[in-house]
Structures are given as C-alpha cells and as structure tokens.
Amino acid sequence: METQEISDLFSLFHNLNTEILEWVISMAESDNYESGEVIIAEDDWGKAIYFIVLGWVKLENIYTEETVTVEIIGKGGCVGEAGILSSLNSNSRVVAISAVEVLTISAQRFLQILFRDSQIQNRFLKLMVSRVTEYQKYCQFHRQTGKVRLATVLISLADKYGEITENGIKLYSFFLQDLANLAQLSVEDCRQIISKLEDKGLIFIESNSDSFYISNLKQLHHIIGKLGNE
C-alpha cells in the first residue's frame, strides 16, 4: 500500500511524516484470508497485530459448549493489539467473516515502532483506553431493551466502518447469529427486530448480495433515545 493510503485508512498512522510511514510499511506483510478462515487462533495472541485493509472479521470467545461473537471489525480497524501487551486471550480467536486483506506486523516489530515514534505510542495508548471504555459500556449493555441493543450495535458498526452510499450507510450482510451475539439476543428475537426495522425503512438488506444498508441513521438514533427513556 502507498503511504497516503495507510495514513487515510488507519487512525494510528494518520498524518505521520512520510519517512515514518515508509518505515512502518517496510515492517508489514500483506496477507489474505478467505471467509471462515482463522486469523488469530487461541494460542496465537501476542504474536502480531493485524490492520484490516479490506473485509470483515469477528472476535469470538470460545466456551465449553458454544462460541460467541463479541466484536465485529471492518476496514480501517485492527485486531490483536491487546495481545501485544498481554497474551491472556487464550479462549478467543479472530475469524474472517468475508474475504479479508490485512497488513500484519509482528509483535517485536510493532514494539519497535512504538518505541521509536511517540505519536504512534500515544495513539496506541488511547486506543487501549478506548477498548476499556467500550468494555465498561458493554458490561451495562444487558440493561437495555433488545431493540435498543441491536440498534446500538448497528449504529456502532456504521460509525466505525460504514461506507456512505446513495442507498445509505453500507455494511456487510452479517450472519444473523453474529448480530444476535453482539446484541445479546436469541437468533429469533434478532430476526424479528431486523424485520421490524426493515419494515419501517430504517435498514435495507439487498437481496442476492452481501450488502446491508442503514437507510435512516438519524431515525435509528431517535428510536434508540425514545426506547431508552421508556
């Protein structure tokens, strides 16, 4: 990738000088994964950080009787960053939802980047703090209604990774089970809520395509506020 593409796509490297960006690119390797392929296995945490150039991945927690999706990350995001500082995620893995292209930087090389450039180091620390803040909010998530939880998930994905198009904010047509996991819903409850949102014209699922659109983000925000105050 070109230095400007890296700068535009990843906030960690935004507006850095060309010399630093070229050095970062020299540290990275380009890798591709197919849908369903494991990117980070349970025993691979702490080995590398992965910057998502194209596609979608999910973070799964693995339990004795089930596997639960706890996060979806898209283009411009990264995974494996927590493992750089700690390799405690032994019950988790990262799996490709779609075809995925990533830039992979080994843990050792990424630590060199952090030590060399204070601006990247500060941004990385802010990223870690934001992860903790998101987790704290997630711990309170179950107190909301199911519709609010699902709408919140969709808005968060749109804000972080959505692509603005003439049809609305474009997302990937995620598996229903993954959305249900994120919103802490049963698959059937998730299906019913999605159907109601679609009937109201707030979302649009394109048939025979992997595209999913949020047609009216403002109204989705409004409904969340209204329901959240009930």
Question: Could you provide a short overview of the structure?
Answer:
By secondary structure, this protein is an alpha+beta fold. It has two domains: 3-139, Jelly Rolls (Sandwich); 143-228, Winged helix-like DNA-binding domain superfamily/Winged helix DNA-binding domain (Arc Repressor Mutant, subunit A, Orthogonal Bundle), CATH 1.10.10.10. It has helices at residues 3-9, 18-27, 81-85, 107-116, 118-139, 146-161, 176-182, 187-199, 217-228; strands spanning 29-33, 38-40, 48-54, 57-62, 67-73, 78-79, 92-96, 100-106, 163-165, 168-172, 203-205, 211-214.
Describe this structure in words.
The structure is a single chain. The chain has helices at residues 3-9, 18-27, 81-85, 107-116, 118-139, 146-161, 176-182, 187-199, 217-228; strands spanning 29-33, 38-40, 48-54, 57-62, 67-73, 78-79, 92-96, 100-106, 163-165, 168-172, 203-205, 211-214. It has 230 residues and is α+β, with helices and mostly antiparallel strands. The strands form 3 sheets. Strands 1-8-3-6 form a 4-stranded antiparallel β-sheet. The model has no long low-confidence stretch (mean pLDDT 91).
Rg measurement, Å: 18 Å
Distance between the termini: 49 Å
Strand content: 15-25%
Structural class: alpha+beta
- The first-level CATH class of the largest domain is given as Mainly Beta
CATH architecture of the largest domain: Sandwich
Helix percent reads 40-55%
Number of helices: 9
Count of folded domains:
2
Poorly predicted tracts of residues: none
Integer average pLDDT = 91
The SSE string, one letter per element, is: HHEEEEEEHEEHHHEEHHEEH
CATH superfamily of the largest domain: Jelly Rolls
Secondary structure: number of strands: 12
- Which sequence of strands runs across the widest sheet? 1-8-3-6
Which word captures the global form? globular
Largest sheet: 4 strands, antiparallel
User: If you consult CATH, what is the topology of the largest domain?
Assistant: Jelly Rolls
